[in-house]
Amino acid sequence: MTPNNKNSNNNNKRPFNLNWLYTAIALFLAGWFFLMTGGLSGKGESIEERQFFEYLEKGYIQKYSLNKDDETVSIYFTEKAFNENPEWSKQTPNLMSTPPDRYFKVANQSYFIEKLDKLPNEITTDVKREITENNPFIEILFQILIWVALFGLLWMFIFRRMAGGAGGPGGQIFNIGKSRAKLYDENSKVKVNFKDVAGLEGAKEEVQEIVEFLKNPEKYTRLGGKIPKGALLIGPPGTGKTLLAKAVAGEAKVPFFSLSGSDFVEMFVGVGASRVRDLFKTAKEKSPSIIFIDEIDAIGRARGKNNITGGNDERENTLNQLLTEMDGFGTDTNVIVMAATNRADILDSALMRAGRFDRRIYVDLPEIHERKEIFKVHTRNLKIKETLDLDFLARQTPGFSGADIANLCNEAALIAARKGKDAIDRQDFLDAVDRIIGGLEKKGKIIKPKEKRRIAFHEAGHATTSWLLEHASPLVKVTIVPRGRSLGAAWYLPEERQITTESQMLDEMCALLGGRAAEEVMFGKDYSTGAQNDLERAYKQSMAMVTIYGLSPEVGHVSYYDSTGQSDFTFSKPYSEKTAEKIDSEIRRIIDEQYNRCVQLLTTNKDKLTMLAEKLLVEEVIFREDLEKIFGKREFDEELNSIQKQAEIEDEKKSDHLLDSSENSTDSIDSDENFLIDNSSNYQK
User: Fold this and answer.
1) Alpha-carbon distance 11 to 8, whole Å?
2) Per-residue DSSP letters for 436-500?
């Protein structure tokens, strides 16, 4: 225990900062120069030449000094002078000399010396006399030394800053090629462990096994197996990739080197490759160890893309060195490389091959039961009411990542504090959901009555179509209170599914067009600009149906989507002009069919649409219960709820048996399509 305490105490000590040393030397030189030149004391007061002879006769002068160069006489008084004249101020001696008490300038040196020689001996006997001359060479040399010292200090200070900043291994010019990785070892207290990572059970199992590789390698190598060299964490932003790495650092109990991909990139050529070499050299010396590179796409981007001919790309040099190091060290060194990225499609194929990153760990958005576990973690330190249902919050946040849920909990706490509550309740979380998704309420925004009526019918059109269509997302609430950039919004609770059928996509598209269709039914073909966001989403969804999912009978079962991302660097389309015309006509056909279907549906239920819009104009916010009073119970909900409950039960049973979806992704539809809010009313002037 004693060595550990000593190490921890040494780690807590702050490193010595050389800036304090430079400051002390500069102050010393400035003070020394100040004292050598006399400081603030100067030469005392100025007197006239006749007063000098009067002081001599009275016996006030102890010593006087004549400087032939500037013709100045410096006078030093005796104690008798100060005793008889208490109002006179006595000069304070400094470290180098004692300044004179008085001084004056002579008009003629020869006449002054001749006059002194004629004085009686009894007056000048006890008075010391000095005649001095300045040595210009010594003064010039002294000034040169002072300025050289000051400029030297300034140069050292600036040069350290240009070399990469003070502190750290890269703080000086000779260490600029050193790695900037932060080391976590047994002396570093990393408080995050696997218990703090909620959900992500499959990903946790993978990284836990990596930790076991390092703690007990014989368990896996006794049968001839080799320890994997690398693991790549892939997933959308905010899903917990970096959090998993922190948990590994807290659990592994081995040296853990953490840095970002951008730490390798520097303005100097060859620095990135040098830092890679130094990083792996240090990791080998401290083996077994783990290297974690966050946002590896900063240096791992595919080579040869948009590169200037003859140019020297520092990122490519860094990547080449990284590839060499990962393939160069043997498996007996017990060094594992972990990396994280949300842009795996742009990484170089040589970096992704087996032997470098042997394992790809997909960190997806959490499911409903995983979101519940995440809520438990983030509400652990919050003062919440005991009646708060975390299952309800998990159902209300489909598509939320772990970072989104953390932000939601913090926002709910701020809202509750703003209202002066003692604990956070359910309504605070719902208000936080509205705040995060829809934006800040703008109750003071002035809207004309005609515009407000059009907005109400627009949102009522969305609510009506989504209520009457089987596969449309169930409605949560509708509001015409402006939020963010939208003047109205409708909240839905989309069904969480792994695959999407054609009928489900068509119903969702029909619900998207409900706002524009309601305007036509109520106001004729005098359309507004409020459906811009709806039309954009409907177009993207219909294009995905035709060009990605092969759901068009005219185009056929063909997908033009390139999941490798290589098509981003080409200027040609994967289909001919004739096929492009077919695609355009099919997109137009699908949108027109769903729009006409929506118009017919709203025309049939025009009276209920009007009742809903009028209620919305009065109350500004309506909920699911209000729609049930107007339209009755939604006949599809009972079947949907039973399916969801059954799915939740199956998910709990299969929580420890997760499928690898690296090549078998069944539903590539934009995940943000299945989100809570429909920013439909984008009424902009």
Assistant:
1) 5
2) HHH--B-TT----HHHHHHHHHHHHHHHHHHHHSSSSPPEEEEE-S-BTTBSEEEEE-----SS-
Q: How many residues does the chain have?
A: 685
CA–CA separation, 459 and 480 (whole Å): 7
Nearest CA among 295, 362, 300 for reference residue 326:
300
Taking only the tens place, the pLDDT of each residue in 255-310 is 888 888 877 776 566 677 888 888 888 888 887 888 888 888 888 888 765 554 44
Whole-number Å distance between alpha carbons of 475 and 493: 6
Distance CA 36, CA 404 (A): 66
Place of tokens 């990083």: 279
Q: Count CB-CB contacts under 10 A for residue 670.
A: 11
The torsion angles phi and psi of 129, rounded to 5 degrees, stand at -125, 130
**Contact between 204 and 244 (Cβ < 8 Å):** yes
| Structural contact between residues 179 and 275, judged by C-beta atoms closer than 8 angstroms | yes
Hey, what amino acid is at 521? V
Task: Look at the alpha carbons of 13, 19, 20, 25 in this order and tell me if their dihedral is positive or negative.
Answer: positive
- DSSP classification of residue 424: B
Straight-line distance from the first to the last Cα atom of the chain, in angstroms, rounded to the nearest whole number: 70
Q: pLDDT digits over 336-362, tens only?
A: 888 998 888 788 888 888 878 888 888
With contact defined as beta carbons under 8 Å apart, do 542 and 598 qualify? no
Distances in Å between the alpha carbon of 429 and those of 185, 374, 489, 678?
39, 14, 18, 19
- Other Cβ atoms less than 10 A from the Cβ of 617: the count is 16
Residue 431 is encoded by which pair of tokens? 């208000």
**Main-chain dihedrals φ then ψ at residue 126, nearest 5 degrees:** -90, 5
Phi, psi of 103 (to 5 degrees): -155, 160
- As annotated, the active-site residues are 459
Q: Which of 31, 105, 35 is nearest to 75 (CA)?
A: 105
Bridge partners (DSSP) listed for residue 424 = 384
Q: Output the furthest CA–CA distance in the chain (Å, rounded).
A: 134
Q: How many CA atoms within 13 Å lie on the side-chain side of 300?
A: 28
User: What does pTM read for this prediction?
Assistant: 0.63
Alpha helices in 532-576 (DSSP H): 532-547
